[in-house]
User: Fold this.
Amino acid sequence: MPKLGLALGSGASRGWSHVGVIKALLREGIEPDIVCGTSVGAIVGGSYVAGNLEKLENWVLGSTRTDVLRFFDIKFSQSGFVDTERLSWFLHGYVAAEDQRIEDMPKKYAAVSTNLDTGREVWFTEGLLADAVRASMALPGLFPAIRHEQRWLVDGGLVNPVPVSVCRALGADIVIAVNLNSGIISKSNHGLPAATSMDDRSVLGSIKQQAKEYSNAIFPNHHDGDAAPGLFYAIANSVNIVQDRITRSRLAGDPADILLSPQVAHIGMLEFHRADEAIKEGESCVQRVISEIRSLIGRR
Assistant:
């Protein structure tokens, strides 16, 4: 039998689609031998290989906007906005326990991160699973960079948003890839968070105004399309643009055998509370091409 690889791409809250993709594949009796993930793809892929996918799904389906906001520290430090203690609680509770190691998993797994100094890819194929996930999802400005083996590491989506190449390097004969960045540029400008006045900037001014703008960036409003973009909207959409361009380039040079593109561009970068529709779209995405997947596996 050919070895099947699953490449789970980056895309923040759109990444809950990966849960639906994995569930749909398993229902069809299609089980990956190799799982590689970048950013949120590393989270969902790590949870799957560690046996925690159902637990993760139940948590995300029960989460609200308020639950998501609790992950962000309004005090803001020089390293980022995320409450690192709460993040650790989430990773160890719903992705991988503190002592679970990648090399002990029943399937081959890799998480992709980026060396902040050199811009090179860093692949985690051994070591603590939760630490690998943390390094892969360290989006600059939100999550603090991770120190590992004398290197500062940040989000892998900066260099390899859909890690097809990693799956092939680990021995996959067939690669099913999930691209969450399809259409994000053309569909992301329907509304802008309100701009902050020059006299009361979010980062330099009051904590209250900072919290308001940050909340707007997480849960965008759509009432004033003529307003100047706020700081966090500009950051979020800049990341979207970079990932869209890199994704196109990487997939052109190293295409997947099956490319799944869930239609989730309408979900905001940090709208994690919209997990239900993302998961359902992931399942539907698999069903739309299941005959093609079966035919490809049968030919090999």
Observations:
- Residues 96 and 130 are 6 Å apart (CA to CA).
- The two ends are 8 Å apart (CA to CA).
